[in-house]
Design goal:
Blueprint (H helix, E strand, L loop, with lengths): L3 E7 L4 E7 L6 H12 L6 E5 L5 E2 L19 E6 L4 H26 L12 E5 L8 H11 L6 H14 L7 H4 L3 H8 L8 H11 L2 E6 L4 E5 L7 E7 L4 E8 L9 E2 L4 H15 L10 E4 L5 E3 H12 L4 E3 L1
Parallel strand pairs: 1-5, 7-9
Antiparallel strand pairs: 1-2, 3-4, 3-5, 6-10, 7-8, 9-10, 9-11, 12-13, 12-14
Helix pairs in contact: 2-8, 3-4, 4-6, 4-7
Length: 324
């Protein structure tokens, strides 16, 4: 039986032919890939309608569905264009892409180790990343997830209050030399939702909750252990790519609920985290904080790297930055 042939037209006047399609064997995802190859329109923003009135928009949302399911017939003409995505849609697609990469990486690591890294306490499973919103509270949302198992951005303000109270209550320890600004100024700053969290905030929350937080730094392929010197009995893992934090959890291979907190003496998950850091660094799944560009949303100035942003914040008290 001969395959289907489709005609493609773009808003710029380009015309292409796609042939040898199988209405039941060719998937929507495969068709989108062919269209992308011919038109350079990315699949995520691809919008298509059948080209004769009444125009019918095609449902390209189910990549695994056969093309017959979306009403395409032999000889049809498709008018294709790139749909302008909102910032929220772009963020969602980027998050899904990162999650897919991390899951693939984790499964490869598990396969290399025989599918089970259950050394010590016998934690058999795959260490995966839970994507949280890419905002200035990602650290606090990530810590909230490992503690409760839920992605709840609303918990961030509570953690900011814990940090401010801790710093304000010990001005000798948390002095300007440690904080990079006067104690009172820091306390007001950290309560603002646009203020980023980092090492100081992780260490305070580690002490407050009595748990070791291990930050898997994929830029340098190392794990920074916050609370290691306090001999806590439990640990949790956070992934840091240079500007963004996400929590890690263990997806069980035996049907048990996902785990986010692990006994210190069980080394299996720690080994996975080390391997994850090495593999992610090798595939460059990180942001170089010395080279990326930020825009100050308060005054509009563009800054290169984390150092310039921190210096600008110190000089102007501006703290609302966005990555360009």
């Amino acid at each position: 039986m001969p395959g289907l042939t489709l005609k493609l037209k773009t808003k710029t006047g380009q015309q292409h032919i796609v042939s040898n399609l199988d209405k039941d064997g060719t998937t929507v995802g495969a068709l989108k890939q062919k269209i992308t190859e011919l038109t350079a329109i990315p699949g995520a923003g691809l919008h298509a309608v059948l080209g004769f009135p009444p125009f019918k928009q095609l449902d390209f949302s189910r990549d695994e569905a056969p093309i017959a399911s979306i009403g395409i017939s032999n000889g049809d003409t498709l008018i294709v264009e790139e749909k302008q995505l909102s910032q929220a849609e772009r963020d969602q697609l980027e998050a899904a892409k990162r999650l897919e990469q991390d899951e693939k990486l984790a499964k490869e690591l598990a396969a290399q180790e025989g599918g089970d890294l259950g050394v010590g306490g016998g934690f058999g499973g795959i260490l995966l990343k839970q994507v949280v919103p890419s905002d200035n509270s990602c650290l606090f949302t990530s810590i909230g997830f490992v503690l409760t198992g839920k992605v709840d951005p609303e918990s961030s303000q509570y953690m900011r209050q814990i940090i401010a109270a801790t710093v304000n209550g010990n001005k000798q320890e948390y002095n300007e030399g440690i904080l990079g600004r006067p104690n009172d100024e820091y306390c007001a700053w950290i309560l603002q939702p646009e203020s980023w969290g980092g090492a100081i905030e992780v260490s305070i929350l580690s002490a407050y909750h009595g748990i070791e937080f291990d930050v898997v730094d994929i830029t340098n392929a190392i794990i920074n252990r916050f609370g290691e010197d306090r001999n806590y009995g439990m640990r949790a893992f956070l992934l840091f790519d240079g500007i963004h934090y996400d929590p890690l959890y263990l997806e069980s291979t035996s049907g048990e609920p996902p785990k986010t907190i692990f006994p210190i003496e069980d080394n299996a998950v720690y080994v996975q985290a080390e391997q994850l850091a090495q593999e992610a660094k090798s595939s460059r799944q990180f942001t170089d904080v010395n080279k990326f560009t930020l825009k100050c949303n308060n005054c509009g100035i563009f800054l290169k790297g984390q150092v310039e942003a921190q210096q600008h914040a110190k000089e102007t008290t501006h703290v609302n930055f966005g990555e360009v």
